[in-house]
Amino acid sequence: MQNKYVLSLDGGGSHLLIQLSVLACLEEDSGSSTYDLFDMVAGSSSGGLIACLILGRTLNAREIIHTVLQEKMLEKMMTEHRMSRLLNLLQIRPKYKGTSKSLVLKKELGNLRLSSLNKRILIPSFNLNRDQLEIFTNESQPDFLLSEVADACTAAPAYYPPVQMEDGSWRIDGGIGMNNPGLSVYLHAKRFWNDSDIKVLSIGSGWRSFAINGIKACGYGGIQWSVKGVASLILREKMITNVKITEEILGDRVLYINHYLKDYDMPGNMDSANNPAFQQKALEIGRIWYAQYREQIQQWLQI
């Protein structure tokens, strides 16, 4: 039976450098680019951005890392409003300008469209007009610009404003409903390669940690819980449950790599790697993860 290899990338904001570092190590070991190693790539949020760059531009992980670091891609995407500290404290508008992110993505992905891809893609996004999670694939209609897909899937609430796409609908980050697309991409792959043995390499971007004082929490209302990041806590627990279900269902057909960021003294905020020092730390974390899983990955991919 022929093997088909699928790459699944969790969301994680600027921590995408961890995932790229893992992939760069894999490329160095195998002598092949990520594009050549995998038949399908799925990504949620920042993972979706990586998927668009890999499949649209056929960039390898090392080249994307160079774009992020040398061309300061994250810094350009994370342009704050004036008086941002006060407005962020009041939480009355998105932290970053959506126009800056849109321009960066348009520059990187140009006029490429979903149907132009030679390999399969899967990216979730949430449609505000229809109040439902949507999946972008090669067959999506309209045939969206890849830059718009990347823009919409990275429009994390509170960080960026929603994105209006070609069909007029407004969309936000699909990570709110599917931050780990591993099981979904496996099922999608079965539609095309039902007679193949499908294997999913799923890479996270680090679990966030939430230390909350129980006694103080007894007096928390909505504002206090919001400040403590209860929405992110709920999202993390849903992700962990989803990962466990995926591993239980797929067994050795999936290999999931992820760890708590606190174990590496890495801040958990989605935009914390918008800083040269933390960017280097993120790359080092990726190298550590790859070293830990190197033998499993090589056996699993038969390289």
Automatic annotation (TrEMBL):
Query: What is the residue range of the motif GXSXG?
Result: 43-47
Q: Where is the signal peptide?
A: none
Q: Does the keyword Hydrolase apply?
A: yes
- GO BP field: lipid catabolic process
Q: Where is the PNPLA domain?
A: 7-186
Q: Which Pfam families match?
A: Patatin
The portions of this protein that span the membrane are none
Q: Which UniProt keywords apply?
A: Hydrolase, Lipid degradation, Lipid metabolism
Q: According to its UniProt record, which residues of this chain constitute the active site?
A: 45, 173
Q: Can you name one GO molecular function term for this protein?
A: hydrolase activity
Report motif location: DGA/G.
Answer: 173-175
What name does the UniProt record give this protein? Patatin-like phospholipase/acyl hydrolase
Native organism taxonomy? Bacteria, Pseudomonadati, Pseudomonadota, Betaproteobacteria, Nitrosomonadales
